[in-house]
Design goal:
heterodimer; A: about 200 residues; alpha/beta; five-stranded mixed sheet; B: about 350 residues; Nucleotidyltransferase, domain 5; 2 domains; 12 helices; globular; binds zinc ion
């Protein structure tokens, strides 16, 4: 019996769940693009009050807006270290795709801010392209159904149920070694111009 | 709990730092700096710093535990810099500290970076520092504080109106092509040079300033004066310019710090922050404090710049003073006031 603490902060939603062999025994979420830092520990404390034993941590590694994304990953790493348990990272977009009931091709797109989307293309629920970051137009041109927070924001879908990573799916993905992600998926380089290239 | 074992995490700027103290004894002080990654940008790039913090966190933590010869399970409390600083950078530290504290089931203290700079002095000296005047000078801050009790009562007497002292060093070093960070570079080339060669202005030291802003600083004037001098003097003597610029800054810092001692009747001064590692400031402070019969304390240079030991040190004092831990779910506070010592 493996009890997992699942965490995702790759979207504007902070999600926490305790999953016992595929069954969600505790879950909580908090919406707000700048509240991951306070929402995550608060919810984890509540989750632990309900179920203190945790055997592994599964965390969404993005892609997602950097600051919030890092909160989830940093917390997951040190929590696991403190407990002496494993931490497994997976692609957050895959945890949205896992609950899409479409067998042909589709796209999952989350909000990358700056008028762009983080997205990946799936076929038979398997990621075949991405994740990438690009403007909505490029995603729309693929002519496939689109799901996720970014799709909703740019009115590329009417499905307002499949929006955020699914916590049970997140843990489900951790069973497949091939889907493990070890580094934060930023997909963008930091904004900075070397002094030598700066205009005088 | 007589001698709490406290782990401190610092990520407010470009240093990922973890310190461990037992009471007032320093056990580990691990610093992973991303400063080299910022050098070609001429200053700290927040996103680069934040990414580096995440990457360095676990390796630094493991190294600190190894250095201190303790296990995570032995830790009594976790302390973390909650502010002030770069918000994205702070958040990596606060989230990491929250994860540790919740994972261990131990209390978390979200503390003030500036107060931590002052309290690190306790790791070099065992006698109490309070009450004391503190001159806090770094790349981000220049302030004069009255420290009645570092765990509960600090009063801000004055602060910089424009650049921080360390920032002024960085800017002048950049103009002179000395690289980043500027403080150590200027300190080095100023050694042995003539510090009286050029008379650069001392900000906010006119008689009217002593009436209205006795304990505030302004370094933009001296910065502009140096820049103008360099422009007008193509064959300038690099060492002399550095020495005279440094002298102007050091002179103002010490004038104001000792004026604060005199005004408050407190005959103790602690100088803290990255600029406190400057050799000229340390020498001038020594001389003038002796003359003024003020007891001077400056942490060893390695503890002046940002580090985790100072965070652990203040955390340890909070534990010993019986302060309540911070609530679960504290946020980073990029503009945390120096008078707010602990997130409650
Ligand atoms: Zn500092």
């Amino acid at each position: 019996m493996t009890i997992s603490l699942a965490i995702d902060t790759s979207t504007s939603r902070t999600s926490v769940a305790i999953i016992d062999e595929g069954a969600i025994v505790w879950h909580g979420h908090h919406d707000g693009a700048t509240s991951h830092g306070s929402a995550l520990p608060t919810m984890v404390a509540q989750a632990l009050a309900f179920q203190n034993r945790v055997d592994q941590v599964v965390v969404g590694m993005g892609p997602g807006p950097f600051t919030g994304l890092r909160v989830g990953i940093a917390f997951a790493l040190t929590f696991a270290q403190a407990r002496g348990i494993a931490v497994i990272g997976v692609c957050s977009l895959d945890a949205i795709a896992a609950v899409v009931q479409v067998h042909s091709g589709f796209i999952v797109a989350t909000d990358a801010r700056r008028k762009e989307l983080y997205w990946a293309r799936y076929e038979n629920a398997i990621r075949v392209e991405g994740p990438y970051v690009s403007i909505p137009k490029e995603v729309v041109e693929l002519n496939l159904p689109i799901f996720g927070e970014g799709a909703l924001k740019y009115q590329l879908t009417t499905n307002d149920e499949i929006v955020y990573p699914d916590m049970a799916a997140l843990v489900g993905l951790s069973h497949d070694q091939g889907s493990h992600v070890t580094e934060a998926m930023y997909l963008r380089r930091p904004d900075a111009v070397p002094t030598s290239e700066r205009k005088p | 709990m007589s001698q709490p074992l406290v782990l401190g995490i610092e990520t407010s700027c470009d240093e990922t730092a973890i310190g461990i103290v037992r009471g007032r004894t320093l056990l580990a002080n691990v610093i992973a700096s991303s400063v080299q990654e910022h050098a070609r940008f001429g200053g700290v790039v927040p996103e680069i710093a934040s990414r580096a913090h995440l990457e360095a966190m676990l390796p630094s933590l493991e190294q600190a535990l190894k250095d201190a010869r303790v296990n995570l399970g032995d830790i009594d409390a976790v302390a973390v810099t909650a502010g002030p600083g770069l918000v994205g950078a702070l958040l990596v530290g606060v989230a990491s500290a929250s994860g540790l504290a919740l994972g261990l089931g131990k209390p978390l203290y979200g503390i003030n970076h500036l107060a931590a700079h002052v309290s690190v002095d306790l790791l070099s000296h065992s006698d109490p520092i309070e009450p004391t005047i503190a001159l806090l000078v770094s790349g981000g801050h220049s302030s004069l504080l009255q420290v009645d009790d570092i765990t509960s009562r600090v009063i801000k007497l004055g602060e910089t109106m424009d650049d921080a002292a360390g920032e002024a060093f960085d800017k002048i070093a950049r103009i002179m092509g000395l690289g980043f960070p500027g403080g150590p570079a200027i300190d080095k080339i100023a050694r042995g040079a003539n510090a009286q060669a050029i008379d650069f202005p001392r900000g906010l030291t006119q008689s009217s300033d002593w009436q209205t802003r006795p304990f505030d600083f302004s370094f933009s004037g001296v910065k502009t004066a140096v820049a103008r001098y360099l422009e007008a003097t193509p064959d300038y003597a690099q060492g002399d310019v550095a020495a005279c610029f440094q002298e102007a800054i050091v002179d103002v810092l010490m004038q104001k710090a000792l004026a604060a001692c005199k005004k408050t009747g407190i005959d103790s001064l602690v100088i803290a922050g990255g600029v406190a590692a400057n050799s000229r400031l340390r020498a001038v402070a020594q001389l003038r404090c002796e003359a003024a019969q003020v007891r001077l304390r400056i942490p060893e240079p390695g503890l002046c710049t940002d580090n985790g030991a100072m965070v652990a040190a203040l955390g340890s004092l909070m534990v010993s003073a019986g302060r309540s831990p911070s609530p679960v779910g504290i946020d980073a506070d990029s503009s945390m006031s120096v008078e707010s010592l602990l997130v409650s």
